[in-house]
Amino acid sequence: MSPSISFRFIILLVVATFFMGSSFPTGKFLISSAHIPPFYLGGVRFIIAGIALLLYCAFRYGIDKIIPKAEDSTIRDWINLFFIGVLQTACAMGFLNLAFGYINSALAAVLFFTNPFWVLILAHFCHIDRLTLKRFLGLILGITGVALCLNIDSKGNILGIVFALCGALSWALCTIGSKSILATQNPPFIIAGWQMLFGGIILFLISTFSTESYPFLTLSALGWFNFWWLVFPASVGSFSLWFLALQQGGVAQASSFLFLTPMFATILSMIFLAESLTIKFMLGCLLIFSAIYMINQRSKKS
């Protein structure tokens, strides 16, 4: 690993990706077993998460601090936060939900978590980070590892594949844009809160126009547990830690850890959904760890 990668940075990303991974089995339960419409669930989930995080920030930093204030333009800061919410929450999660309707969840997840590949490509051409041969090979290893962990079926509808890749590209664009926004005086927790709230509102509006709804009072105790886990650890926790880590490290370094998310999702599915452990999964984990190591190594010249 690069000497610039701190232990705290690694812990932040490991915990963040664990929480992100936990959203797959919990979301699968709520959508498949409790039959909550996906866009309605996403809207309610992120609106509550965004409001909860902003209330916490208001108590911690003061109400005046949660209002975005850029040095030169407050309006531009609001636009930047809305931009993050659209890409990170509404587009990325919205496209992923659309992909689930056309291709199986494993293939959708593999395509969605090609995100580090797009981040490094964009960062290279935007002169933010360098794409070296070792990093490129690391990306290929990571994507292969994710595919092995999820044991994908290569058959898939082209429209579903396009939706999943659009979700990955949306998140990649957000990651590149967020790096400059995080350089402002706004704490990352506040940025995470606003982006979830804005993105959640957009998802909720989409669900409203699609006439989606759900009687939450009929949700079982297990359903409520999964829902609140999805709101707090899997949303508030994951996005807060993600933006905090992104503020501290490079976009390529942070994004490489996203390969851990489907691995954690599979592990949690094995524990709670009784899915089996396979040799492919263990080999996939090994490739993912190797990929993260290769991407985070820096050459002596850099």
From TrEMBL:
The chain crosses the membrane at residues 39-59, 79-100, 106-126, 133-152, 158-177, 189-207, 227-245, 257-273, 279-296. Residues 10-149, 159-296 form the EamA domain. It is found in: Membrane. It is a multi-pass membrane protein. Coiled coil: none annotated. The keyword Zinc does not apply. It comes from the Bacteria. Keywords: Membrane, Transmembrane, Transmembrane helix. SUPFAM superfamilies: Multidrug resistance efflux transporter EmrE. One of its GO terms (cellular component) is membrane. Its main location: membrane. The keyword Transmembrane applies. Belongs to the EamA transporter family. This is EamA family transporter. It comes from Candidatus Ignatzschineria merdigallinarum. The lineage of its organism: Bacteria, Pseudomonadati, Pseudomonadota, Gammaproteobacteria, Cardiobacteriales.
